[in-house]
Amino acid sequence: MNIEKTFKEIDIDKEYYRIMNNNNINEQKDYILYWMQGSQRLSDNRALTVSAEVANHLDKQLYIVFNFISDYPEANYRHYSFMYDGIKEIHKKLNNYGIRFIITKGDFIDNIKIWADKSVMTFTDKGYLKPQRSWRNSLSKKIKSPLIEIATNTVVPVQKVSNKEEYAAYTIRKKINKHLDKELFTWNLPELKNKNNLDHIQPENFYNKNDFLFSLNINNELPEIKNFSGGYSQAKLKLKSFVNNKLEDYQENSNDPDLNVQSNLSPYLHFGQISPREIALFIKEESELNPNINPEDFLEQLIIRRELSFNFVYYNKLYDTYPDALPDWAKKSLEIHVDDPREYIYNKTEFENAKTHDYYWNAAQLEHIYTGKIHNYMRMYWGKKILEWSPNPESAFNIALYLNNKYSLDGRDPNSYAGVAWCFGKHDRAWQEREVLGKTRYMNKNGLKRKFKMDKYIDRIKEVSGISKINGDK
Ligand SMILES: Cc1cc2nc3c(=O)[nH]c(=O)nc-3n(C[C@H](O)[C@H](O)[C@H](O)COP(=O)(O)OP(=O)(O)OC[C@H]3O[C@@H](n4cnc5c(N)ncnc54)[C@H](O)[C@@H]3O)c2cc1C
What would the CATH number be for the domain defined by 3-152? Predict the structure, then answer.
């Protein structure tokens, strides 16, 4: 039996899948396996839909396996807690689908292999970052079944958009837009013909969140973010509330930190708990009903800017390394200014503890610590100032990534690497040359005060952090 032929028969386009080893399909086995990793959802999950369609085509059952590893690069309790919420919800929901859910913890190769070796074939969602790609490659060599990766988590598959690293939003926009009509639909999960009636499998203490997460021996330095629970149903609530209360103002006010016109969907997108396609379709439908809503600016961020980040990490293997992640003009220009005297210099601990001279920067870092996010405009300011106040651009780049990935619930994402690199010139153009920053874009405190009611932003940060006195000068 041939994999490509099976996909043809069920009408799955070549651009959506990649066969990762040469193992043969074993039709004697009972189930198809989907190793869920980056797309932690049941709704609009192309990898899951394809797994289910193949299961129905071959009259097999469908199993999903999800493994909690304890050493996910840079993750800590804050991230695991959010992820756990989403997996718990899936675990409960799957009781009604006839799909068996297997939750394991520890070494992912050992755990997935046990189930993959007994499957007809194994599917997984596509990985974009280096660790995810290397896990899939390693697994493909260790298991007995075929491993097939299905493109998910972007509206248009990365390789369908472009076969190279794109320079900026203006070079990728057209390449994405030309596919949107065909790609903007939902991948529904078909009903399983051959339903499983065996119980799910999960670690003994799975039902007790704290016990379970502590048993993983993860980094416990940061507690969970209260009032920011993970999972698909929470993502849907956030999406609906955003559409009802904020979307109308997005175009005009999303840059304004004191107005807080943002969806807060990025952590859900990061864990794949909701798909960008589902969000885009919902936004489009709602905007057709309400003439006051212009969805274009939001869709530009959600689709174009986000998928530019995926393009970046997919095609630039040094996306997390200074200066390789940057365009030539920025590399050269920052290098010329590497020895310029800095007005202020801080080390990692001073940044981390919000101990700079700048009241607004410190507020942004407190927002980071206490809410797991920074408002997008303040995030740009935050990253730019780390470049300006570090001993050199390389240490600034590393500090910004370290803090972003440690504190942000949406950290360790393609957007994290693109966002930090943007502060150093990535996906941007050259501006007027100045000390320290060279030709990279400059942002300043007076701009914040001139454009926005910063006192309202500060009040919000004081409220969420419980800190009444923020360090630094206004
Ligand atoms: C220094 C720096 C670091 C960043 N780190 C991250 C990160 O770790 N994770 C992350 O998801 N985003 C990151 N961003 C991009 C951006 O700040 C966030 O995506 C956004 O603030 C998320 O909040 P939201 O979901 O409420 O955004 P909304 O404004 O509601 O936007 C909706 C969605 O559009 C996408 N989006 C919005 N702005 C951008 C952008 N500038 N670039 C790419 N996609 C965007 C996101 O997926 C976001 O969830 C970073 C930006 C900078 C400047």
Answer: 3.40.50.620
